[in-house]
Amino acid sequence: MKKIICLLIVVLMIASVGYAQKKMNIAAKDLPGLKGNWEGIISFSTTEAGGTSPMKLEILNDTVPVKAKITINNVPENVANMFGLQTGKNEAESAEGLITSQGTIMWIGPQKNFFEVTLTGEKKINVWYFLRGMKGEGSLKKK
Q1: pLDDT at position 49
Q2: Inside any domain, residue 43
Q3: Ranges assigned E (strand) in the chain
Q4: Buried b (16+ CB within 10 A) or exposed e, 100-132
Q5: Do the domain assignments include residue 65?
Q6: Residue 112 falls within a domain, yes or no?
Q7: Which domain holds residue 74?
Q8: Cα–Cα dist 57/19, whole Å
């Protein structure tokens, strides 16, 4: 029994180290490689119905502050109604993206809304957001 517990602890430690290494810190020198179009899926995880929609993130420059445009397609009607969005296509732009001390890029909006990007590979980023009480995440690949 002790051997099984020790083996389980070793496996969990190895898995946690592997997971922790996936996140790569973003620095100003990385911005030229991040500039461009990123596409993937974003979730609406805190809504009653949940769901996902296709998303595009355009990083428009390679200096701080980072300018970006977000396009979310096919926003479900129940999500749109809950948070004052349009059904279908929604777009937003910000020229206020900053590199955080945690090595992410964060755009902060009014009422504590935010959108944060983490680099997880050479051509892959994860996103987290909080918008009008709704939070969720997504995964995007560079196009």
Answers
A1: 60
A2: yes
A3: 36-43, 52-59, 66-75, 88-99, 105-108, 114-121, 124-131, 134-142
A4: eeeebbbbeeeeeeebbbbbeeeebbbbbbbbe
A5: yes
A6: yes
A7: 24-142
A8: 24
Name the CA dihedral angle for 30, 69, 99, 140, rounded to a multiple of 10 degrees: -60
Q: How many domains does the chain have?
A: 1
Question: Could you tell me the pTM of the whole model?
Answer: 0.80
Distance of alpha carbon 83 from alpha carbon 81, whole angstroms: 6
Give the residue carrying structure tokens 């390679």: 62
Question: Residue 86 has what DSSP assignment?
Answer: P
| Residue 5 counted as domain residue | no
Task: Give the CATH number of the domain where residue 93 resides.
Answer: 2.40.128.20
For 76, 83, 85, 88, the CA distances from 49, given in Å and listed in that order, are 9, 13, 16, 16
Cα Rg of the chain, angstroms = 18
Q: What is the pLDDT of residues 9-54, one digit of tens each?
A: 544 444 444 444 468 999 999 999 999 999 999 998 765 667 889 9
Name the percent of the chain in helix, strand, coil, to the closest 5.
25, 50, 25
| 25 in Cβ contact with 105 (< 8 Å) | no
Q: How far apart are CA 140 and CA 12, in angstroms?
A: 27
